[in-house]
Design goal:
about 475 residues; alpha/beta; Aldehyde Dehydrogenase, Chain A, domain 1; Aldehyde Dehydrogenase, Chain A, domain 2; 2 domains; 14 helices; about 40% helix; globular; binds nicotinamide-adenine-dinucleotide
Length: about 475
């Protein structure tokens, strides 16, 4: 049922040339699923050379030809949906329904880019001279490196690879060594769909060694990374040495503002499943709940009841609503957040502990009266912890919401249209959900401001990230 783990180098699926591997763990059972192969330096150089060699042929294909390959890849994802989904749940832990949903998002992202690649328009600029043609031509940026994390092991590689391939760029993907099977299974769809040898490569290894080697090779023209802020800053520094264009999708700390005129049924029914989706390991997960004083107690009580009712278990059980954390590092982090909250006098209304005799399970946790000084109010928890705090004044809550150096997503609930407009304008994040949380779709731009990174994926902006714009001034002799 689990995927066969291989590297993809110059069109060949194979093991690493030096035979180095690392175990992949099922976070629900702590069993070893398989060994993830590491690429040697020679393997990485082969991938870089192959990508460089493949660039002229891939960029020379028409947008319609590239589109046909991508659409076939999305068809294969549909055909292999169950296998990819099961592989994902086994190695990452999320409930099988969520894994299948992630494959669906991959299909959408690939189809969207397959079509959007046909609309990489240039433009003609009115000229100053008779007979002059003043043109802007989009061109693929070149060999691109995608570094992707373990929380969305299918969507992250696909969102980057589909955009780059649609634009005409060869891709080298280094997916997470903790969730390699999903990356292998989903990228096989592209090679089986007819992506030529060398145009798409997949490697695993020691993350810092791979990124240093690839970035330092001088062959990479574009870097797209999704992961933590410290790693993003480190990669941006490495990339600056070679003037590599970057898209950095980093962490966030999304505030949720719930006003006294909000419909609590809507808020609870949307925010509880969203908070605990993927066990809270989502960069746009709702993270700090600021609730108006007049509805605070009812909100806490209803949120707590809904969190208590969630069925936690192995993601392969179709009844499971929240799976384990993806790795044991997250359990340690959760225990530290909870201890720190207790030290700050916070009341834990449900959860707060590791659970089960095996696997990395942590209870859905709700905290009330959380002061801004508690670590969880400023450090990204990336886990199933929901801190709730009160507010009374609009200005005060907006200041608190904007008070951190991050700005990925924010959410607010109010039935007052004027207030909704003001919130949409004043929240300092790359995405704002007003009375909903639909901020990540194939057709919409996704990315942060401040320390949450720069550049966007998805939408027309996602294709743009893989294009240069060449200006041509042409006259007759
Ligand atoms: P981490 O900071 O060690 O790694 C984060 C991701 O970056 C991992 O996928 C890792 O393989 C990769 N990485 C690390 N160093 C790298 C390097 N030098 N070059 C290339 N890739 C590198 O932390 P972690 O324990 O894996 O995750 C913890 C934190 O990471 C979370 O608290 C969360 O803030 C963040 N994170 C964010 C996202 C996201 O979607 N934005 C995804 C995963 C993790």
């Amino acid at each position: 049922m689990y995927e066969k783990l291989e590297l993809l180098i110059d069109g060949e699926w194979r093991q690493g040339s030096e035979g180095k591997t690392e175990p992949v763990i099922n976070p629900a059972t702590e069993e070893v699923l398989a060994e993830c192969p590491h690429a040697s330096t020679a393997d990485m150089d082969q991938a870089l050379d192959a990508a460089e060699r493949a660039f002229p042929e891939w960029r020379a294909k028409s947008a319609w030809e590239r589109s046909a390959v991508l659409r076939e890849a999305s068809r294969l994802m549909m055909e292999r949906r169950q296998h990819i989904g099961e592989t994902m749940t086994l190695e990452q832990g999320k409930p099988i329904g969520d894994s299948l949903g992630e494959v669906d998002r991959c299909i959408e992202a690939t189809e969207w880019m397959a079509e959007e690649g046909k609309r990489a328009y240039g433009r003609l600029i009115p000229t100053r001279m008779p007979g002059q043609r003043s043109m802007v031509l989009p061109e693929p940026i070149g060999v691109s490196l995608a570094l992707t994390p373990w929380n969305f092991p299918a969507l992250m590689p696909v969102r980057k690879a589909a955009a780059g391939l649609a634009a005409g760029c060869p891709m080298i993907v280094k997916a997470s060594e903790e969730t390699p099977g999903t990356a292998v299974a989903i990228l096989r769809c592209f090679t089986d769909a007819g992506v030529p040898n060398g145009v798409l490569n997949l490697v695993f290894g020691i993350p810092d060694e791979v990124s240093r080697h690839m970035i330092g090779s001088g062959k990479i023209r574009k870097l797209s990374f999704t992961g933590s802020i410290p790693v993003g800053k480190h990669l941006a520094q490495l990339a600056a040495e070679h003037m590599i264009k970057c898209t950095l999708e980093l962490g966030g700390h999304s505030p949720v503002l719930v006003f006294d005129d909000a419909n609590l049924d809507t808020v609870i029914s949307q925010m509880v499943p969203f908070k605990y989706r993927n066990t809270g390991q989502v960069c746009i997960s709702p993270t700090r709940f600021y609730v108006h004083d007049s509805i605070h107690d009812e909100f806490v009580s209803r949120f707590t009841d809904a969190a208590k009712a969630l069925k936690v278990g192995d993601g392969m059980d179709p009844e499971t609503q929240m799976g384990p954390m993806a790795n044991d590092r997250r359990i340690v982090a959760m225990e530290e957040f909870v201890q720190d909250a207790r030290d700050h006098g916070v009341e834990i209304t449900t959860g707060g502990s590791r659970t089960g005799n095996q696997g990395y399970f942590f209870e859905p946790t709700v905290m009330e009266n959380v002061p801004e000084e508690a670590a969880i109010m400023s450090k990204e928890p990336f886990g199933p912890l929901a801190p709730i705090s009160k507010f009374t004044e609009f200005e005060d809550v907006v200041t608190r919401a904007n008070g951190l150096p991050f700005g990925l997503a924010s959410y607010c609930y109010t039935s007052n249209q004027k207030q909704a407009d003001e919130l949409a304008n004043s929240l300092e994040t790359g995405m704002v959900g007003v009375n909903n949380f639909m901020v990540s779709m194939a057709e919409t731009p996704f990315g942060g401001v401040k320390e949450s990174g720069y550049g966007q994926e998805g939408g027309i902006e996602g294709l743009e990230a893989y294009l240069n714009h060449k200006y041509i001034s042409q006259t007759g002799m």
